[in-house]
Amino acid sequence: MNNSASATSVLQTNSAESQSRAAVLQAKDLHKTYRDGESFVEVLKGVNLSIEAGEMVAIIGASGSGKSTLLHVLGGLDSADAGEALVLGENIHKLSVQKQGEVRNKSLGFVYQFHHLLAEFSALENVAMPLIIRGEAPEKAYAEAESMIAKVGLSNRLSHHPSALSGGERQRIALARAMVTKPACILADEPTGNLDMVTANKVNELMFELNQSEGTAFLLVSHDLKLAHLMQKTYQMVDGVLELTKV
């Protein structure tokens, strides 16, 4: 091998290692099948995906195509029949239930179509909850929660319970709760699906702002093609197969 070829090989190796180190979330040949009565439905058919640090990625596709299942498997909320789901290089499905919970608390954030805020707690208490569960001192947890709520523009709603918040405000608090642990990646499943267009656009803008200010990657499942077009990468899920449509 000549010097030029050798140098090229080294550069390619270093580049591959750098890309691997930069990946915060990966799917490697993921398969998932559900039983439906007497039949079986293959929902994920060898899905491969890599989300790099700070990347904004969308997954679009018809209802029932496997988008939400993929998010659940990547986050360790559902099992895989085969393949790997790597969070910061660690296969979450090889960990104990306790360790999976710790990885989710430390490295991942979740936002859903429904906010899933706890009705009996204030906005501040809801956002601080992941930190308190982690074992942070309450004073520190509430201080960090208050800071994150300020970043979503709701400092005047700290003491409000979910029932006193508008739909858009609830989703912003849910986003603050997901972000408060400073995760490597947010998994968002139709986070604006229950909102009107104007409110949805404001929440979408907020996600982009937090991505820029916090450096958090986002993997977003959405039916909003306009939003997907704004992402750095867009994949389409078709019958359990993930296809890259935009880079």
Element order: H for helix, E for strand: HEEEHEEHEHHHEHEHEE
Distance between the ends:
34 Å
| Major sheet size, sense and barrel closure | 6 strands, mixed
Sheet/helix structural class: alpha/beta
CATH class of the domain at 23-119 and 175-246: Alpha Beta
Percentage of residues assigned to helices = 40-55%
Query: Per DSSP, what share of the residues sits in E-state strands of 2 or more residues?
Result: 25-35%
**CATH A-level architecture of the domain at 23-119 and 175-246:** 3-Layer(aba) Sandwich
Low-confidence stretches: 1-21
Query: Strand tally, please?
Result: 10
**Number of helices in the DSSP assignment:** 8
CATH topological fold name of the domain at 23-119 and 175-246: Rossmann fold
Shape: globular
Rg measurement, Å: 19 Å
Q: Strands across the major sheet, in which order?
A: 6-7-8-3-9-10
Q: Taking all residues together, what is the mean pLDDT?
A: 86
CATH homologous superfamily title of the domain at 23-119 and 175-246: P-loop containing nucleotide triphosphate hydrolases
Describe it.
- Helices cover 41% and strands 27% of the residues.
- By secondary structure, it is an alpha/beta fold.
- The protein has a domain of 169 residues: 3-Layer(aba) Sandwich (Rossmann fold).
- The strands form two sheets. It has a six-stranded mixed beta sheet with strand order 6-7-8-3-9-10, with helices on both faces. It has a four-stranded antiparallel beta sheet with strand order 2-1-4-5.
- The two termini are 34 Å apart.
- The N terminus is likely disordered.
